[in-house]
Amino acid sequence: MEILLKDKKFQAMQGRHCHEILEYLIRKKINFSILCNVECVKFEPSLPQEIRNAFSDLTLFILAGYTFESLELDEKNLYFEAGFGEENLGSFVTAPLDSIVQILLPNHDGLQSDFCIYVNLFATFAKIKQSSIEEEEGINSSMQALLANPKNKRFKK
C-alpha cells in the first residue's frame, strides 16, 4: 500500500477519476455527499472551535440545495458554501480531491444507507502524504538553490 501511496502516477489517476465523477454529477445536477479527511479541508472564514471539535476525522458533507448550487470544481479542489452548527454559520469550504474518501449518492428507496460510487482509501493518509511531499520538494528546491551558486559545486556528489 505504501508503494501506491508514493506513486505519483497512481495519485494522478485517482485524482482524475474523482474529478471526472464529480464533474459528471455536477453537470447532471445529481445531489451527492462526500466523506472527507477533514484535517485537509479548509473553511473560510474559520469555524469556531466548538464546531470544528464536533467533526470526526472523516466527516460527511451533504451537497444538496444551496450548497449544491454553490459547487465549483477545479483540477485539485471541490469548493462549496455550507452552513454549520445551530446558528447555521456560513463558510466557504475547500475540499482537496485527494482528501475525498467516498462519494455517495442518496438512497431514496428506503434501504439502510447511501450508495457509494467512489472510494479512495488513500485519502485517509492525505495529510501525511501531503506533508512528506512538501518536505521532499522543499529539500530538492533548497539543494537546487545551493548548487546553482558556482562556489557551491564542491558540495555536489
Outline the structure in words.
The protein has 157 residues and is an alpha+beta fold. 38% of the residues lie in helices and 28% in strands. The chain is built from five helices and eight strands, in the order H-H-E-E-H-E-H-E-E-E-E-E-H. The chain is globular, with a radius of gyration of 19 Å. Residues 128-139 have low confidence and may be disordered.
Brief digest:
This protein has a four-stranded antiparallel beta sheet. With 157 residues, it is of the alpha+beta class. Helices cover 38% and strands 28% of the residues.
Straight-line distance between termini: 32 Å
Radius of gyration: 19 Å
Question: What is the number of E strands?
Answer: 8
Largest sheet descriptor: 4 strands, antiparallel
Number of helical stretches of at least 4 residues: 5
Structural class by SSE content: alpha+beta
Mean pLDDT, nearest integer? 84
Looking across the biggest beta sheet, what order are the strands in?
A: 3-1-7-8
Task: Considering the chains and any ligands shown, give keywords for the structure.
38% helix; 4-stranded antiparallel sheet; 8 strands
